[in-house]
Every structure is written in structure tokens, then in C-alpha cells.
């Protein structure tokens, strides 16, 4: 297989720079462009910009393209639907794709008993509605989330989100009755201990919160990411999540697992809940559910999902028929192309390569991952673990110049996360990682 990366102009090229200038004149300043390039077309794991440069995409549209750009099974369903109709509002005139998608997704959520689904547009919408569903079912008013969490930028979702800049500063007051406890961020454990010697003491902070912050009988749900996404691809011990689940069960609190980024094979199982031995009452889904079409959902125990009653959740565009067909196409890919098997193979290979970089590059303080949901955390000193935020920004730009699209994460802005397509070939992944390795060396040379 030939090389995928192809550079024909400087990066960004003249046409991209011209579009960037137009963007600056016409588009709100909040929408800054990380790469400075403009896309012309994409397929699989490859992106071609308007200047003809070809890149390998390790961003996946921020976790949206687990099946890859323009997967044929998805595109075929979308094109057929576009020829029939594009909107009715499901609550006025229903359509089969919504129903079929619920039928095919619900059994994939771990846990006993019948399950139901509701569909929305964005991950934040799913989070807003999952809290409403939990409150309707329990009759309770409080919600508990975790330090380092990211759940979106609308009011309740932003209240649950833990990073102040750029997401929360200046946008208060936030939704009331939201409380926060520590997450199992083992690399930066405030106790200075290591797992399992620590006994996942951080899980006990949830029960402590019932004494010092909010009574357990007032808590409707605990909302947790099985692996923190924007927080830095923080992978907790399975025991931590299982203890959180047990505490919720003891107090009649619903366990909500936010699978917006971890779902659809990102951790090597269809949902991360399965990987960590969880049986959530409710999950939220979005991002890779529809391979780039806007769609999200809440899936969970039938009696919980039915609690709000007619008209209390929904929206004009929710569960759009074109997006539902795209999502069915994604499920076709999983069912017929062993995408989970490919994900596990890629995840193992990715972690080995990142661990090799950690051995060679002092800048890499930690490598972690759950299947192909992997990351490396950059530090200026491995003993102090001082976050290397500026170096992380430089690494992303060095990688871009070598033809690789990367994004960062983490509350300190010093984590490089990998969100490549699960259908990416090993050869393409190696080509991209060779470029990342070279970019690391360039950043370290600049430090000296």
C-alpha cells in the first residue's frame, strides 16, 4: 500500500488561508480553526484539503467517525432516504427508521430487562434529557457528576461539566442541585498512591458527599463517563466504576453512563459499560452513532424511560429520518464488517506504539487507553508532572506539517488523544504514528 500523506503546498495552503480570512470576517470569533485548513473531500481515514494536500485523520471529527468518513453502507442508506423524505417530526408522522434504530440499539445496552430509546440531535441534548428522565422517575432533584467531566455546553450539561475555561467562565449562574466528587485519575492521584494499593479510595468520596453535600435520598442520578473524554482520556480502574454503581444501587440512585464519546466501539466493546462490567440504568449516546449526521439518544430501562410521559421530552428535529438511516448504516457496519474486532486490533497496536514513544521521549509522561480510546499526557518533568500545555500545542502543529490531524484534551490542555477511525488500516495508522513520533522529536529539540 502506498503512502497516504501527500503534501503539494505549504500548510495551510493559499486556498485554505483565503477561506480562513473569509471566515474571520463572517463567522463568530468563538469558532477558531485548530488546523487552519479547509476540507475539500474525505474518505475512510483520509482528508484532502482545498489545496490538494492529503492528511491522515486521527481526530475523527472529535470522535464522530468511528466508521470512517463516508462509509459506503452509511452513504447508501442516506441517499435512499434523501429520495423519499427528510422531515416530518416523529411525533406528528412516525417513520420506521426511528423504531428500527431503537429496536436494534436497546438490546446492546448491558443489563437485564426490556429497554427503550429516545432520540435527539446532540450529545448535550441527550444529557439535558437524561437528567429530566431521571428526575421524572425518581421524584428527586439533585444530580452528582465528577471532577474533570465534560457533558456539553447547554445549561444542565454545562453545569455538569467540570472544566472552567473555556466552557463555564462567565456563563453562570448554573443549574442548581449539581454536586461533584473526584474521579479516579490515577496518574494524578491526590493521595500519591497507586492502584490497587489505594483501594480506589476515591470511590468512597461519593458516600462522603451524602454526608457533606447532599442527602442520598435527594439524588436522582449520578452521571459518569466510563472513560473521561475531554477531561483527558482518563481510564479508571473497573473497580472504581463498579463501586460507584453499587453505591447508587444501595441508595436507589439511577446510574447514568455518558457514552457519547465511549460508545460505538471506541473502547473495543460496543459500549464502554460492557468493558467495565456496568449495567447502567440509562446511557447517553451521540457522536459516532450516525457517522457524522447529527443524532443523539438516551437508552435505558423501559420503566425509567417511560417516566416523563407524553410531550415532556422531545423537539422539532429530534431523531431526523436521514440521521436515523445513517445510524442504521453504522449498525450494519458493526454487524457485517467485524468493526469491533478491527477496533481491538488497532487499539492494541496503538498502545504499543505510544508506549514505545514514551520510552524514547521524556516529554511523554503517561500513556493510557481503553482499546483504541488512547492518549498520551505530556509533561515538562516526569517527577513533578508539570503539564506541558504549550508543548502539546506545538506538537499538534508539528504533526499537521507532517500530514496528520491531531487534537488535544485534558483539564490542563496537555493530553494528545487519538480518535482515528476504527476501520483505519494498520499501515495507515503506522504512517500517522511515524509522523507523530517525528513531531515529538522536533518539539523536544525546540525545548533544548
TrEMBL record:
Cofactor: pyridoxal 5'-phosphate
Gene3D superfamilies: Aspartate Aminotransferase, domain 1 (3.90.1150.10), Type I PLP-dependent aspartate aminotransferase-like (Major domain) (3.40.640.10)
InterPro entries documented for this protein: 4NH2But_aminotransferase_bac, Aminotrans_3, Aminotrans_3_PPA_site, Class-III_PLP-dep_AT, PyrdxlP-dep_Trfase, PyrdxlP-dep_Trfase_major, PyrdxlP-dep_Trfase_small
Keyword Transferase set for record: yes
Superkingdom of the source species: Bacteria
Pathway listed: Amino-acid degradation; 4-aminobutanoate degradation
EC number per UniProt: 2.6.1.19, 2.6.1.22
Recorded family membership: Belongs to the class-III pyridoxal-phosphate-dependent aminotransferase family.
Protein name as annotated: (S)-3-amino-2-methylpropionate transaminase
Species in which this protein is naturally found: Limnochorda pilosa
Amino acid at each position: 500500500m502506498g503512502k497516504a500523506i501527500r503534501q503539494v503546498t505549504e500548510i495551510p495552503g493559499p486556498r485554505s488561508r483565503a477561506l480562513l480570512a473569509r471566515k474571520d470576517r463572517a463567522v463568530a470569533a468563538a469558532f477558531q480553526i485548530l488546523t487552519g485548513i479547509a476540507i475539500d473531500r474525505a474518505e475512510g481515514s483520509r482528508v484532502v484539503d482545498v489545496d490538494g494536500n492529503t492528511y491522515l485523520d486521527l481526530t475523527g471529527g472529535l470522535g464522530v467517525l468511528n466508521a470512517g468518513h463516508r462509509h459506503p453502507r452509511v452513504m447508501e442508506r442516506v441517499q435512499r432516504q434523501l429520495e423519499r423524505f427528510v422531515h416530518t417530526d416523529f411525533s406528528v408522522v412516525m417513520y420506521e427508521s426511528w423504531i428500527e434504530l431503537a429496536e436494534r440499539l436497546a438490546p446492546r445496552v448491558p443489563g437485564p430487562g426490556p429497554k427503550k430509546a429516545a432520540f435527539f440531535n446532540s450529545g448535550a441534548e441527550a444529557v439535558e434529557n437524561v437528567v429530566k428522565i431521571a428526575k421524572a422517575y425518581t421524584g428527586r432533584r439533585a444530580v452528582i457528576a465528577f471532577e474533570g467531566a465534560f457533558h456539553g455546553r447547554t445549561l444542565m450539561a454545562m453545569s455538569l461539566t467540570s472544566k472552567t475555561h473555556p466552557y463555564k467562565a462567565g456563563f453562570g449562574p448554573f443549574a442548581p442541585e449539581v454536586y461533584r466528587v473526584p474521579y479516579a485519575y490515577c496518574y494524578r492521584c491526590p493521595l500519591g498512591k497507586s492502584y490497587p494499593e489505594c483501594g480506589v479510595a476515591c470511590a468512597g468520596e461519593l458516600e462522603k458527599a451524602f454526608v457533606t453535600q447532599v442527602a442520598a435520598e435527594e439524588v436522582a442520578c449520578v452521571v459518569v463517563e466510563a472513560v473521561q473524554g475531554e477531561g483527558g482520556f482518563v481510564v479508571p480502574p473497573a473497580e472504581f466504576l463498579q463501586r460507584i454503581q453499587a453505591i447508587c444501587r444501595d441508595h436507589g440512585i439511577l446510574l447514568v453512563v455518558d457514552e457519547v464519546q465511549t460508545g460505538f466501539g471506541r473502547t473495543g466493546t460496543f459500549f464502554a459499560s460492557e468493558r467495565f462490567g456496568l449495567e447502567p440504568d440509562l446511557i447517553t449516546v451521540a457522536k459516532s452513532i450516525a457517522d457524522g449526521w447529527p443524532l443523539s439518544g438516551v437508552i435505558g430501562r423501559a420503566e425509567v424511560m417511560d417516566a416523563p410521559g407524553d410531550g415532556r421530552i422531545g423537539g422539532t428535529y429530534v431523531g431526523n429520518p436521514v440521521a436515523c438511516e445513517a445510524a442504521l448504516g453504522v449498525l450494519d457496519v458493526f454487524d457485517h464488517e467485524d468493526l469491533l474486532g478491527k477496533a481491538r486490533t488497532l487499539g492494541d497496536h496503538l498502545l504499543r506504539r505510544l508506549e514505545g514513544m514514551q520510552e524514547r521521549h521524556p516529554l511523554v509522561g503517561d500513556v493510557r487507553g481503553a482499546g483504541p480510546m488512547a492518549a498520551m499526557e505530556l509533561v515538562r518533568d516526569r517527577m513533578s508532572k508539570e503539564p506541558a500545555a504549550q508543548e502539546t500545542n506545538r506538537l499538534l502543529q508539528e504533526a499537521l506539517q507532517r500530514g496528520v490531524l491531531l487534537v488535544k484534551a485534558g483539564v490542563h490542555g496537555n493530553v494528545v488523544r487519538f480518535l482515528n477511525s476504527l476501520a483505519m488500516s494498520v499501515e495507515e495508522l503506522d504512517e500517522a504514528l511515524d509522523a507523530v513520533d517525528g513531531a515529538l522529536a522536533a518539539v523536544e529539540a525546540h525545548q533544548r
